[in-house]
Queue: 2 jobs
Job 1
Amino acid sequence: MAHACISIVGATLIALFSMTAVAETPAPATSGIEGTIVVSPSRPGPIRKDEGPSVAPVGNAQFVVKAGDAAVKTFTTNADGSFQVALPPGHYVIEKEGAAPRIGRWRFEADVVAGQMTKVNWTADSGMR
């Protein structure tokens, strides 16, 4: 009976020490892409001298992230065009879902490095002239 108690106490101590070691191991840094997406021109017609370029945030738009031909993730920009998406290291192509293939330019590329967030500021071409 005493031998069984010692075995149980020993196993419990080993389990506690193992959980403590795992809990103290730092989590791997997140990698992915973060930034903003704007569109220009945001309105048709000529740009007047006294006006700046017509640029607007691409708010609440859904984008698909592809590795090669395979879609690996989707994300939605917030109201000011900002986004953050966690991704493993690699090369990615990002396209706006539902964008007409011949109008505008809604395709971006990014390389993700392990343990780092790749920061981007992309400007899409609306195709308006």
Job 2
Amino acid sequence: MAISEIIAALMLPGTERSARRARAFARDVLGEGHPSLPDVELCVNEAVANGVEHTRSGRGGRVTVMFSRAGDDLLVEVVDDGADGTRPELNDDPLAEHGRGLQIIDAIALEWGVRADGARTAVWMRFPGPPPQPV
């Protein structure tokens, strides 16, 4: 997915409170009236919470939330500190104890994926625009 313009980014500590801060950041960047705001808030919450719980981010690290323009759509990335070479994978079992965060993202985002960023991991999600103006 080609990014044409980074709109805003925020680096947060790898703590549970960061999911709440990431939702507030999404509201600040998109504005209360943005049609994708509820979906973005939910998916950002899940991606940040997963990063804090399952990666080095939650052990004294950090997590970054970034909003970009991708054509007429909005691209959101949550980058964590990685988990010793493993990457998040979608668990298709609806009764599984773990893996519901990616199931939620899969159901809501137009498109999503995972990419390596060095030792870090980025979960990217695409949502309908309009992309906000740079902050």
